[in-house]
Amino acid sequence: MSTREAGTGHTGENPAPSGIDAVVAAIRSGPRGAGVGAVFDLTALAELGSAPVPRWRGPDRELLETLFDQLRHSGESSAGDVLERGIRAAAGRTPEELTALGERLFERGWYDRLRPELLRLVQEHIAAGHTVVLTGDAAEFQLRPAAAALDIPQVLGSRAAVSGGRLTGRIEGEVRYGPEKAEAVSEFAAAHGVDLRRSYVYSGSAGDLPLLSRGGTQVPIAPDPVLAATAAEYGWTALAVGPRTAPRPADYLRTVLGLFALLGGALYGVLRKSYTRDRRAMADALMKYGTAWPLRLCGIRLRVTGAEHARHPRPAVFLFNHQSQFDVLIVPAVLGGHVTGIGKKELIRHPIFGPLMRFVGVTFIDRSNTDLAKASLAPVVDTLRGGLSVAIAPEGTRSYTAQPGRFKKGAFHMARQAGVPVIPVVIRNAAEVGRRDSMIARPGVVEVAILPPIAVDTQDPSELDEKVAEVRQRYLDTLRDWPR
Known about the structure:
This protein has helices at about 20-30, 40-45, 60-70, 80-90, 95-110, 115-125, 140-150, 180-190, 210, 225-235, 250-275, 280-295, 310, 325-335, 355-360, 370-385, 410-420, 460-480; strands at about 5, 35-40, 130-140, 155-160, 160-165, 165-170, 200-205, 215-220, 300-305, 315-320, 340-345, 365, 390, 420-425, 445-450. It is an alpha/beta fold. One of its GO terms (molecular function) is 1-acylglycerol-3-phosphate O-acyltransferase activity.
């Protein structure tokens, strides 16, 4: 595989956090199987204490404020009291309503507080076949959205009591904090054949000392002062992680300049090739300069592995995992010319991106209507047969973490019908230069791996499902073992 870099500017690149590689090596060389546990407390998985408070709106505003405040107190003795207050305020609601509140809290409030270093450890434990559990001082409905986004199958938290299909306003038993949480994990381990003496426990709070003491490998993550002192006393290696910081004024300035660079680069590209009167040539030049200029000004560099697969074979369906708003710049910059894409229909009316996307031949789909979406994809097959490649996010939307979401089959159907391969474009860390719902650019290096083409020639629906799962697994494997 070849490796190349594109773009210039400050990299913002840091060496791997101290100790993470050693833990990864221990997991890979250690025992495998479900008998080994990996218990991640929320205080290790996310940096919540300094999380900015969202502006909640609607009739649930006060309840969301209380529940989010409870998350910000994770690891503190007051977390239980705040949780009980929130559950009392939720009395009379259905479990389904509570689930929706948990999803809203995660998606609007704290998905971007998850630590990417910990995602790496979660992936290693899953790959080793370990029993992975997310626990915390919060209720289970608060924890489940993060667990689902990270493919963590088990959640242990406090539970809201239900009677007659409605919340009673009380918590089942006791709030799971400190000794109660440790006891709940021990009971879960006994019921599922997990040997805690061979297991890993991750936490950042001294409140979890009873839980940490039951594990075989204790891993303090960004520990509070009391846990740091205890770790030093017992010889536990505390792991440093990067802070989740807010954008700086310079980032806002770079973003504004980058927007002007996008428009200027796009116009320059069209004018540069206008003498040809070839719309495709002008579209390719638009993408070349309309991506290179803003990436350069924003200080975003691309480090590409497997660049040869972007050039051959063509045409192809290029699949990219979608994390960031800046993927619309990263993917065309990596693939070069003679490629178009697929976007949501709402972008047609965007005053900037709408005209640009129409000019390069993007197909717009209605994601709210499955039948209309399928019908609008039919012309894309003709586009592929005509020799033009297509880039598409198989998840259908941006993921909340670096873990790829569930892949849809539309892109694979198109590739099969057009008789072209799919080529995975694996983006490692785009969310670090532009988080999911943010238009603010941060300088840094985005790593991209373009994998060899994969044929999609099956006619059997069950085999197609297997192919989709196989391709997604390649993303997971590549993100875990990045090609050098």
